[in-house]
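4.2 Preliminary Data

To establish feasibility before requesting continued support, the project team ran the inverse folding procedure on a target of 171 residues. The structure was first converted into the token representation described in Section 3, and no sequence information of any kind was made available to the design step. The complete token record follows.
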């Protein structure tokens, strides 16, 4: 393509775009969102007097909407208005009140990892499964629970990693 022809095509394209801009209604060009004033928002702060934990270590939201908080003082759940310290989930007791980490899978349920003594619990559909160190889990506090891109559940502990294989963990 010659330089003159390329220049002519470029000018024609710019002219066509300019024509489109002139034909477009002004409202479509500069539609600004209405300003949101700070007064339109509300803020609520919760503290220890409201039963809110002050030493939050991890947070997870289950598919039923509950916000779960792992704290040095135990496991809490929050419904958007109030905090409640819980010693059991769906009627099943926690292995320890020393909760370190949480994982809420998209299909529902809650995994709880413990600091003191290690171990994890899985609560789902009214059932509970508990796994302790020595049952495939490495020793020490559970520091993280996560699912990999391949769907495998992984657990990190002070002494290593383990993955869920069927109904048991392997290191």
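Position-by-position output of the design step:
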């Amino acid at each position: 393509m010659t330089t003159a022809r390329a220049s002519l095509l470029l000018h024609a394209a710019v002219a066509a775009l300019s024509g489109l801009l002139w034909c477009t209604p002004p409202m479509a060009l500069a539609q600004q969102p209405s300003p949101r004033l700070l007064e339109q928002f509300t803020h609520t702060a919760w503290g220890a007097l409201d039963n809110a934990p002050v030493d939050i270590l991890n947070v997870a939201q289950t598919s039923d909407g509950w916000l779960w908080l792992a704290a040095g003082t135990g496991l809490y759940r929050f419904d958007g208005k109030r905090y409640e310290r819980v010693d059991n989930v769906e009627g099943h007791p926690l292995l320890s009140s020393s909760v370190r980490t949480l994982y809420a899978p998209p299909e529902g349920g809650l995994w709880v990892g413990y600091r003191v003594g290690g171990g994890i619990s899985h609560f789902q559909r009214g059932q509970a499964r508990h796994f302790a160190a020595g049952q495939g889990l490495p020793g020490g506090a559970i520091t993280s629970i996560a699912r990999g891109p391949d769907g495998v559940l992984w657990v990190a502990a002070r002494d290593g990693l383990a993955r869920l294989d069927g109904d048991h963990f392997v290191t």
